């Protein structure tokens, strides 16, 4: 690595202090990192997780991306066991003790989330598993040897720069940051280079919300009221009062006990690169500009919002898409259409192709065959050009279309489980993740409760 200096600290220097060492070092404590850390710990590995913020939970806690979108094949949840463990661990921190099941007019049910409960529950699980957590540790560089192995992750902390060392590493940054710094090839964007828009999520309390009973037994926002709200929003766009390019208002009711609170997933920030610091800063500013505009309009003109208050706002704008790291297998739209099965499957997904337009209004939705799923092979988590790295969460090897399906948080947890298990097995055997038998990864995950049995192509 070429030596760089930041405030007098040589990035390439062997003199960087050692801040932590483990069998498996995981960058990122979001949904993918949670799955990876727990799975690696199941395998008996010593696990260290480095997180740039002061809490775990990733998009669920930091970006307030709510809710957990539904990933079921019929009535069967595809994601286990960490997804279920995380939800269960949230219950003590919720006013009603249970996550609220939302019945949505788009014919899927999903769970609203309390961001604080999500963070506390994730930390509970990590600590109970014996995982070492290092908060406020931002990964800023990678050291590699002549054999293409990572020898350490360079991190920036409040006390300066240091090194995190492991036998194997898992990139759960959500953006493939470690893989990119390690020189792994990646793709980004569609054929025109556009990535899905970012969204700044927020919640409004003291809203007069009309509910009806939903088909799944949960609360359902009155569909007619929802449609009237979107129609008023579209008229405000025409009148120049709203400049958010999204085509409608995307909202979800919050948990029971907060009957008058709405979660807004409505802002649409286009044209910015989430892997570029200056772009990311501008995206944050634009997201908050749209929030201010929406809040002023709702309070002034929309019935039911006159007393609305800004209850919370995401600390960071939510990112749907950035890098997709090239791996030993590239999942593609044909796999979605064919409901592909793999002997080395580590996750299953039934969520829609869900592409929010990178260029403005419009959302492309493609449903999977009713009651079916496609599988995600372990090979998608093993990047090219690095001998001791796996990738967990959304930036795995996939084309732009199917990525829009597998990017949801429950699926990211399951992908993380596979990446973490593979890394732990590689560390224990002294081999590379590429040499790990993906079929054995699958069998081990099944042994710990993953829903991967009976795909017809087992080995």
Brief summary of the model shown:
This protein is of the alpha+beta class. It contains ten helices and 25 strands.
What does this structure look like?
- The chain has 459 residues and is α+β, with helices and mostly antiparallel strands.
- It has two domains: 5-190 and 321-447, FAD/NAD(P)-binding domain, CATH 3.50.50; 202-313, no CATH class.
- 27% of the residues lie in helices and 24% in strands.
- The chain has helices spanning 31-42, 82-90, 115-128, 177-181, 223-238, 277-301, 333-338, 400-406, 409-429, 438-447; strands spanning 5-6, 9-10, 18-27, 47-51, 72-73, 76-77, 101-104, 108-111, 132-135, 138-144, 150-157, 160-171, 186-188, 202-205, 211-213, 219-221, 251-253, 262-264, 309-313, 323-325, 345-349, 353-356, 363-366, 374-377, 389-391.
- The strands form nine sheets. Strands 3, 4, 9, 10, 11, 12 and 25 form a seven-stranded mixed beta sheet that branches.
- Strand 5 and strand 6 (76-77) form a beta hairpin.
- Helix 1 (31-42) packs parallel to helix 9 (409-429), helix 2 (82-90) packs across helix 3 (115-128) and helix 9 (409-429) crosses helix 10 (438-447).
- The longest helix has 25 residues, at 277-301.
- The chain is globular.
- The two termini are 41 Å apart.
């Amino acid at each position: 690595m070429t030596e760089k200096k930041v405030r007098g600290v040589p990035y390439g220097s062997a003199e960087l202090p050692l801040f932590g060492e483990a069998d498996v070092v995981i960058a990122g404590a979001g949904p993918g990192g949670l799955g990876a850390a727990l799975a690696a710990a199941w395998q008996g590995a010593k696990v260290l997780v480095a997180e740039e913020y002061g809490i775990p939970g990733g998009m669920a806690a930091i970006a307030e991306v709510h809710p957990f979108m539904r990933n079921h094949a019929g009535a069967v949840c595809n994601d286990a066991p960490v997804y279920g463990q995380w939800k269960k661990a949230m219950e003590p921190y919720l006013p009603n003790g249970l996550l609220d099941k939302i019945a949505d007019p788009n014919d899927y049910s999903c769970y609203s989330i309390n961001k604080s409960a999500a963070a506390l529950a994730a930390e509970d699980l990590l600590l109970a598993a014996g995982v070492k957590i290092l908060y406020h540790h931002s990964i800023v560089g990678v050291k590699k040897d002549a054999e293409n192995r990572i020898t350490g992750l360079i991190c920036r902390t409040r006390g300066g720069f240091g090194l995190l060392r492991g036998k194997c590493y898992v990139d759960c940054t959500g953006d493939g940051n470690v893989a990119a710094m390690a020189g792994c090839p990646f793709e980004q964007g569609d054929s025109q280079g556009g990535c899905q828009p970012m969204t700044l999520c927020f919640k409004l309390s003291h809203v007069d919300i009309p509910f009806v009973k939903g088909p799944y037994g949960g609360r359902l926002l009155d569909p007619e009221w929802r449609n009237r709200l979107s129609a008023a929003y579209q008229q405000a766009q025409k009148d120049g009062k709203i400049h958010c390019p999204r085509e409608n208002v995307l909202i979800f009711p919050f948990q029971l006990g907060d009957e008058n609170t709405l979660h807004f997933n409505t802002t649409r920030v286009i044209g910015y690169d989430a892997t570029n610091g200056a772009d990311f800063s501008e995206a944050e500013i634009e997201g908050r500009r749209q929030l201010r505009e929406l809040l002023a309009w709702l309070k002034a003109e929309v019935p039911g919002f006159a007393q609305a208050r800004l209850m919370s706002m995401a600390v960071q704008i939510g990112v749907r898409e950035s890098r997709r790291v090239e791996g030993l297998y590239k999942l593609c739209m044909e796999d979605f259409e064919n409901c592909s099965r793999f002997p080395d499957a580590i996750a299953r997904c039934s969520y829609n192709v869900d592409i929010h337009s990178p260029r403005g209004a419009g959302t492309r939705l493609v449903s999977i065959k009713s009651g079916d799923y496609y599988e995600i092979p372990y090979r998608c988590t093993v990047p090219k050009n690095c001998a001791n790295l796996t990738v967990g969460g959304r930036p795995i090897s996939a084309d732009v279309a199917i990525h829009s399906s597998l990017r949801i948080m429950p699926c990211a947890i399951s992908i993380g489980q596979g990446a973490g298990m593979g890394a732990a097995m590689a560390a224990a055997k002294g081999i590379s993740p590429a040499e790990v038998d993906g079929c054995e990864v699958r069998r081990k995950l099944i042994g710990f409760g993953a829903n991967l049995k009976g795909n017809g192509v087992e080995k």
